[in-house]
C-alpha cells in the first residue's frame, strides 16, 4: 500500500518506516527538515517530502496520492504542546478526509479508567485521538502505556533511575500499576494496522503480558542488568513536579519531557480490553515479557545499535532548526572564534577523532568547565550534557550529541553542530579536516555565536577570556589525539 508517515524523524516513526518497507509497502515520509533523514539506512527506499503538520497546505500536499497515513507527531517538548497538538491533529483530520484516504493510524496513550482528572499529556493524547477518529476516514487509534525499547524516553528514565540510585526516595505513584509494552510489539500492531478493513474504526489498547508497578519495574530491571537489589522509600508529599526535578538531576531526560511523563504515571495505565486481537492477532510468539524487553534494549545499547532515540525528535521553532541562510551565516552580529592547526596525522585519522567527539569520549578540553556548564544548563531547564551519543564512532544529521545537534555532516571533511543549551542567542561549532598536501592534515575549528539582545553580547564578552583554554585546548588535544591514534578502532602510533 502507499503509506505516508508523519513523524518519521521521531523515536517510533524512525523504526516504523523500515518495518513498513519490510512488509512490502511503498512509503513517503514527511519532515520539516529532510536533511535529518539523509543518513538513515532506508533513505533511498522512500520518498522524502518537506512538510510541517501545523501548515494545512503542507499536510494536503503530503497526502496526495496516498492510501494510509500514520500520524506519530507529538509536541511534548513545547510548553504549549496541547494547543500545537490540537491544531496539527485538526489539520491532518481535515486533509485525510479531503484526500479520501482508506486508513488513518495514530499511536496514543492508554486512558485510565478512573474519574480523576488526566494529566495534560494523557488528556492531549486522548484529544488528538478523538479529533482523528472524527475525520470521517477509517481510523485505528492504538493506545499504549510505557514503551520499553533502547532509546525511548520512558526506558531511559527507568534505566538511569535504577542504575544510579541504589536507594531512591520516591512518591506514591511508584505503587501504581502499569502495563508496559516492548517497542517491537508496538511496531507489530502499527505495521499490521495498514491492512485493516474499512469496518475497523476506533481506539484499541495494546500492552505486553505483564502488569507491574513502577517499583517492580525498577527492581526487575536491576535483576536483568545484574545490579544489587534497589530500595525505594515512598514519600507521600513528593509531587510530580518535584519528582521531575529529581529525574532531571539523575537522568538524561529533561524536565520538559520528565514532567509530562511523571504526571502520566500518577494514573494507573492498564489495558482494559483485548479487542485489537480480533483484528490484529498478537505476534506468533506472543507479546514480549517485560524482562525480555529489557534484555533486548540493553543488548542494543551494548552493541551501539540503537536505531532511534527520544532525543532525535525536534519540534517547530526548535533551536536545532537550520538557519534559512547557510553557509556563512551572513548578516547581523556574529562572534567567531577560529582555530587552525596542522597535524602530521592523515586526514582520515583526524576525521575519526572529530566524528567520535562527545559522549563517553568527551570534548578534549577542560572537562571540569564542560561539566559545570552542563550542570548549570540543567538547572535552568536545558538539556545539559547527559544526552550522550547513539553510536561511539558514527554520527548522522539531526542526531542529538550531548547539548548539541548535528546540523551538517560531510564525511570525512566537515561536522557542524548547533547548540541546544540555554543561551542568550544561537551558537554553532564546526570542525573540519582537510589534506595539507604533505601527507598530514589541516584542522579547522570555528565557534560561532549569534547574540540576542544586550544579554547575548555580555555573555560572549564574559566567556571570551576562557576561549583559549576551552577552544584552544580543544584544537590542540584533537590534533594530538589524531597523531597518537587515540580514536575508536584506532591503534596508538
Automatic annotation (TrEMBL):
<dbReference type="InterPro" id="IPR051207">
    <property type="entry name" value="ComplexI_NDUFA9_subunit"/>
</dbReference>
<protein>
    <submittedName>
        <fullName>SDR family oxidoreductase</fullName>
    </submittedName>
</protein>
<dbReference type="Pfam" id="PF13460">
    <property type="entry name" value="NAD_binding_10"/>
</dbReference>
<dbReference type="InterPro" id="IPR036291">
    <property type="entry name" value="NAD(P)-bd_dom_sf"/>
</dbReference>
<feature type="region of interest" description="Disordered">
    <location>
        <begin position="311"/>
        <end position="330"/>
    </location>
</feature>
<dbReference type="InterPro" id="IPR016040">
    <property type="entry name" value="NAD(P)-bd_dom"/>
</dbReference>
<feature type="domain" description="NAD(P)-binding">
    <location>
        <begin position="7"/>
        <end position="113"/>
    </location>
</feature>
<dbReference type="Pfam" id="PF11066">
    <property type="entry name" value="DUF2867"/>
</dbReference>
<dbReference type="InterPro" id="IPR021295">
    <property type="entry name" value="DUF2867"/>
</dbReference>
Amino acid at each position: 500500500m502507499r503509506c505516508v508517515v508523519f513523524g518519521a524523524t521521531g523515536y517510533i516513526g524512525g523504526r516504523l518506516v523500515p518495518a513498513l518497507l519490510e512488509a512490502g509497502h511503498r512509503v513517503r515520509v514527511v519532515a520539516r527538515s529532510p536533511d535529518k533523514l539523509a543518513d538513515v539506512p532506508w533513505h533511498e527506499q522512500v520518498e522524502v517530502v518537506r512538510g510541517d503538520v501545523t501548515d494545512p497546505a503542507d499536510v494536503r500536499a503530503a497526502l496526495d496520492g496516498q492510501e494510509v497515513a500514520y500520524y506519530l507527531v507529538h509536541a511534548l517538548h513545547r510548553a504549549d504542546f496541547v494547543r500545537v497538538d490540537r491544531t496539527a491533529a485538526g489539520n491532518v483530520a481535515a486533509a485525510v478526509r479531503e484526500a479520501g484516504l482508506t486508513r488513518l493510524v495514530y499511536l496514543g496513550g492508554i486512558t485510565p479508567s478512573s474519574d480523576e482528572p488526566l494529566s495534560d499529556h494523557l488528556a492531549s493524547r486522548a484529544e488528538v485521538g478523538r479529533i482523528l477518529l472524527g475525520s470521517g476516514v477509517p481510523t485505528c487509534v492504538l493506545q499504549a502505556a510505557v514503551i520499553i525499547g533502547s532509546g525511548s524516553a520512558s526506558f531511559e528514565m527507568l534505566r538511569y533511575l535504577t542504575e544510579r540510585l541504589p536507594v531512591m526516595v520516591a512518591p506514591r505513584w511508584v505503587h501504581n500499576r502499569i502495563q508496559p509494552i516492548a517497542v517491537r510489539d508496538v511496531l507489530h500492531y502499527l505495521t499490521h494496522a495498514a491492512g485493516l478493513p474499512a469496518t475497523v474504526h476506533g481506539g484499541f489498547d495494546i500492552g505486553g503480558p505483564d502488569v507491574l508497578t513502577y517499583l517492580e519495574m525498577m527492581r526487575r530491571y536491576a535483576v536483568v542488568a545484574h545490579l544489587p537489589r534497589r530500595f525505594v522509600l515512598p514519600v507521600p508529599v513528593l509531587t510530580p513536579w518535584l519528582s521531575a526535578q529529581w529525574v532531571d538531576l539523575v537522568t538524561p531526560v529533561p524536565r520538559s519531557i520528565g514532567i509530562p511523563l511523571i504526571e502520566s504515571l500518577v494514573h494507573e495505565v492498564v489495558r482494559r480490553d483485548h479487542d485489537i486481537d480480533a483484528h490484529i492477532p498478537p505476534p506468533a510468539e506472543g507479546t514480549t515479557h517485560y524482562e525480555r524487553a529489557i534484555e533486548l534494549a540493553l543488548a542494543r545499547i551494548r552493541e551501539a545499535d540503537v536505531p532511534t532515540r527520544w532525543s532525535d525528535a525536534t519540534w517547530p521553532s526548535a533551536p536545532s532548526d537550520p538557519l534559512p541562510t547557510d553557509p556563512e551565516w551572513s548578516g547581523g552580529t556574529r562572534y567567531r572564534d577560529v582555530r587552525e592547526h596542522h597535524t602530521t596525522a592523515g586526514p582520515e585519522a583526524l576525521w575519526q577523532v572529530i566524528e567520535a567527539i562527545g559522549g563517553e569520549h568527551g570534548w578534549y578540553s577542560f572537562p571540569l568547565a564542560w561539566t559545570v556548564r552542563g550542570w548549570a544548563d540543567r538547572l535552568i531547564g536545558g538539556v545539559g550534557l547527559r544526552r550522550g551519543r547513539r553510536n561511539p564512532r558514527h554520527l548522522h544529521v539531526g542526531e542529538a550529541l550531548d547539548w548539541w545537534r548535528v546540523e551538517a555532516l560531510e564525511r570525512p571533511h566537515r561536522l557542524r553542530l548547533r547548540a541546544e543549551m540555554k543561551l542568550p542567542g544561537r551558537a554553532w561549532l564546526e570542525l573540519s579536516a582537510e589534506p595539507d598536501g604533505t601527507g598530514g592534515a589541516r584542522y579547522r575549528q570555528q565557534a560561532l555565536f549569534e547574540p540576542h539582545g544586550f544579554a547575548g553580547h555580555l555573555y560572549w564578552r564574559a566567556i571570551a577570556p576562557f576561549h583559549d583554554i576551552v577552544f584552544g585546548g580543544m584544537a590542540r588535544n584533537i590534533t594530538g589525539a589524531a597523531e597518537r591514534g587515540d580514536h575508536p578502532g584506532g591503534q596508538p602510533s
